[in-house]
Structure formats: structure tokens, C-alpha cells
Amino acid sequence: MFSAIRVASRSAASARTFRKAIPVARAPWSTGFVRTLVTKRYTQDHEAVIFDDSTGVGVVSITDYAQSSLGDVVFVELPTVGTEVAQGDQIGAVESVKAASDIYAPISGSVEEVNGELNGQPGLLNKSPEGDGWLCKIKLTDPSEIESLLTEEDYKKHCES
């Protein structure tokens, strides 16, 4: 019986030694804790914004519901980089074979970038309205405005009514 305990204690001791001998690789991101919150919200006018709190930038797009209502998009008017916009300001327009529709800023801030791909391929709004068909990126002046927009559940209810 004592020999069994000695064997068990030897194997446990050798396992501890073995574990210490193996270097542990650390991932570069594990040295510090960074929390990034990405929030997606909607307007009643069918714009969407994906806000990243670590950069303070919101990516503005139209929703899938909007693009399906418009039909085949043939032209997109985008804001100019550097333009200061207030929540609710008109920042562009979308024209389709069915209709034309204005685009409104879901948030206040400065336009940092526009999606130049839409000039040559306005159909990206139909293929991927909230992905490759994004409209512009706005650096928010008041991140609390995000909370005033609709959540995904609230937006779905709005579309159903």
C-alpha cells in the first residue's frame, strides 16, 4: 500500500516538474484587458449605424428592409468627407428604378470616410446593404445619441406595423 502512495506522489511531482518545464506562449492581446463595445442601432427612417466605442466611429448604412423597398439601386449620393452633421440631417440620397429616398444622419458628428465603391457599384446597396454597401463613417460628437435609436427588436416591431 505504501508503495502505491509513493508511486502516485512521484508521478504527481514529476507532472508538476514537467508542467513547469514547458514555456507558455502568451498571446499579445492577453497582456492587457481592452473592452470594446460594438452597438448596432436603427432609425425609424431605415438607416442603421454600427458604433464602436473604442474608436468613437459609427458606420452608417441603410437597412435590408429599406433596400428591398427601394428595388434596384441605380445611384447613390454620399456626403463629403469632413462635413459636420447633426442627428436627423440629410446626408445623401438613394435612387432606384422605383423611387428616390433621402438618407438622414442617425448620429451627430464629422464624416470621416465615405464608401467610394458605391459610385461605380450602387447595386452593392442591394447585395449587402449593411455590409459592403455601407454609406459613410461618422466620428460621433455625442455617443449618448446611440441610446436614443431603436434596438433590433424595436426596429423589427416598427417594420411590422
Description:
The glycine cleavage system is composed of four proteins: P, T, L and H. Pfam families: GCV_H. Its cofactor is (R)-lipoate. The protein has helices at residues 2-21, 64-70, 117-120, 124-127, 152-160, and strands at residues 38-42, 47-52, 57-62, 73-77, 84-85, 90-96, 100-104, 109-114, 136-140. The protein starts with a helix and ends with a helix. The protein is built from 5 helices and 9 strands; from the N terminus they run H-E-E-E-H-E-E-E-E-E-H-H-E-H. It is globular. It has one domain (38-160): OB fold (Dihydrolipoamide Acetyltransferase, E2P). The protein has a 6-stranded antiparallel beta sheet with strand order 1-2-3-9-8-5. A 3-stranded antiparallel beta sheet has the order 4-6-7. 27% of the residues lie in helices and 29% in strands. The protein is α+β, with helices and mostly antiparallel strands and 161 residues long.
Total number of beta strands: 9
| Portion in strands | 25-35%
The general outline is: globular
SS summary, helix count = 5
Overall number of structural domains: 1
SSE string: HEEEHEEEEEHHEH
CATH architecture: Beta Barrel
How is the largest sheet built, in terms of strand order?
A: 1-2-3-9-8-5
CATH class: Mainly Beta
Tell me the distance between the termini. Answer: 77 Å
Structural class: alpha+beta
**Average pLDDT score:** 84
CATH structural fold name = OB fold (Dihydrolipoamide Acetyltransferase, E2P)
Task: Offer a few descriptive terms.
161 residues; six-stranded antiparallel beta sheet; Single_hybrid_motif; mitochondrion; transit peptide
